[in-house]
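Troubleshooting: if your tokenizer reports a length mismatch, compare against these two reference records.
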Amino acid sequence: MRALIAASFGIIFAAGVVVGGRWPTPVGAQGYSVTIDCGVSSAAKIRTTLYFGLSRPKGSISELEWQIFLRDEVTKRFPDGLTVWEAEGQWLTPVGSIDREQSKVLLLVHADTAAARQSLHAVIEAYRKAFEQQSVLWESSRVCVAS
């Protein structure tokens, strides 16, 4: 996706440290912090959603190219599982027109570790380089997971 998406939406990342299956939240306006307890039947994780644009200077990224990227770059770093769906993104360009692009949305649920964050950055960098992309929009948030 283009840098315009990143500029329009920014990078959203909810970082935190898991404390015994609970998430400490930032100190609120009242000066105290609240802890979200995931309970005994679930675990605290990070849910990251990545938005990959499928347009590039020399044409669209094919389904085969996407599947190879998913296998070689994403699955090797996040083997526990993932979800992908097709989407159409749109954003306001600097000149005021609406631009649209076919996209793939990738949902990952992973531990809040330095290794996972490094893997996310590696996936984004690999996509940008392989498909001549200016950016990949991503967001992360804390979740409680039970299977």
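Reference record two:
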Amino acid sequence: MSRVINPNSAGKERSSMTRAIALAVRELAKTNPSANAEQHNEARDLAAFIALALEVVAETIEVSVVAWEKRDYWVKADKFRMEWRWAGQLAAQMRTAALNEDWGSIAQVAMQVAMKLQNIKISDKHRMGRPWEGSWGKLA
């Protein structure tokens, strides 16, 4: 019997989510939440999306590590957890800041996320669309 390959692995999900987060952070940097109601709602959606997407990324870490631990690759598993620990921490900070609409904290957390994801390149003609639309309703 041949191997069963899951095309929707945790690694692929983490990769697509980090690309979407990087795009959302860049869009958030362009918005001014105090300019008008439309930009305010856009900024709330972006902040909420970043928080929710970081939570998804944090959840995929354990899924990836389980396979290594089954093979007794404990050092590799622990190193991977330490490399991605920031995702869960920044997700909690962004969730709190977004729910309180603390734009100073949102900007600070977004900058930290941008530093972690600075190597991700997204072309101007990407096909991701606007995945953050409606995220405020899911967060609140």
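Descriptive notes for reference record two:
- The chain has a mean pLDDT of 88.
- Residues 10-118 form one domain.
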